[in-house]
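Before the break, one more example. Copy the sequence into your notebook; we will annotate it together after we see the structure.
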Amino acid sequence: MLLTVKSPIANIYKKNNNKSEIVTQILLGENFITQSKFGKFYKGYKAYDKYKGFIDAKDLHLDKRKKTYKIISKDCNLYKKPTIKHKTNKKLFFNSKISILDNKNNFIQTTVGWILKRNAKPINFKTKHFLDNVRLYLNTKYLWGGNSPKGIDCSALVQELLKFNNIYCPRDSKDQKKFFKKEITIKNIRKGDLLFWKGHVAIALNNKKLVHAFGARKKVVMMGIKETIKKIYSKSKLPLLCVKRIKKL
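Here is what the structure looks like once it is written out:
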């Protein structure tokens, strides 16, 4: 059964309990295919990338409304009514998918509350380059399995940035390495190329610098390419495996 996420962020767990390892996350408005139920948990997979796991049933609902807009801000406040004074303590996050139920003044109404219009764009909107949104994630804390500006890991950073620009990307770095076929030499690296190590991926900002969710720094950081290659090898003895180019850019 196809269900839709109704929470701002929902965890997908390795096992059917919320103390299990978080393997990935799914955002408001995204779809989850359920296969079976274990207590209060559904077993299934994300419709977008087929990533499997267990999700708490309270995070899902049946919603056949078409998602026509997406959140373009790092996060945005939710309001009970279309006025600033009715702000709640809840937020929606970048790349969340929404249906618009009403439109009033500078606000639009979603299924979970009102947001300011400036925080959303039509679902097919994209930036000139997928890295144009990377600033939204800078200094975001490193979170294994995280998929949002509240916490993210290296491969999810790549996935979410590409997803916003309607470019499909698998969830894990090992699958991203296989999916993107065009391999280039390090001397020809340019903006948007992906650098792969065993269990890690980074994105080139230009031929000198990269950005990645770096576990050693516990956040999303910009670093020198040569510096990063040396640091990962000295710390973990992991060499750079390859550099891949995304053909659709």
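The radius of gyration is 19 Å. Residues 225-236 form the longest helix (12 residues). Try to locate both features in your own notes.
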